[in-house]
Specification:
Layout: H1 8-11, E1 20-23, E2 26-29, H2 30-54, H3 60-73, H4 85-94, E3 101-102, E4 105-106, E5 121-123, E6 130-132
Antiparallel strand pairs: 1-2, 3-4, 5-6
Helix pairs in contact: 2-3
Length: about 160
Amino acid sequence: MPVVYSLTDLTGRNRNENRRMVVATFEVKRRTFLISVLSVVASMPITTIVGFLFGVYALAVPVVFVVGGIWLWDSRQRKGLKLLNYQAIVDGRKASNGVLYAAGQPVPKPQLVMHQRQFIPLVDNERGTPVVLGSDNLSISRTGRGRKPNAEARFT
């Protein structure tokens, strides 16, 4: 039999999720590298202004931007749907008008569905007595001396 490999991780929807690249002897995800570069570029105007005011301390501004960018666009929430942090923030802002959003899609209004327990009565062929499904005491002996089934079924 020939050896078969799954190519879904290489060609599927999340194919770029785990791709890594080496940058200055560091191995990073491609997405993290792009976010870092874009964050540094976005921080340049503010770094220039802060550089004129505080000198060398302005080098902390790109670091703050990179950390913030990675937190917003590369990390996920620890609970719930585990959305990206920026998506959760966008959904929270959209939800202010009374419509809930999850992953960018509006959540439909909940529908009330009533569920009732239903019992299907069966008849024991030997004794002719009704047996209730779901009852916790269905120990009917062959001689007919077992306990009678309960009228109410108890679920555990």
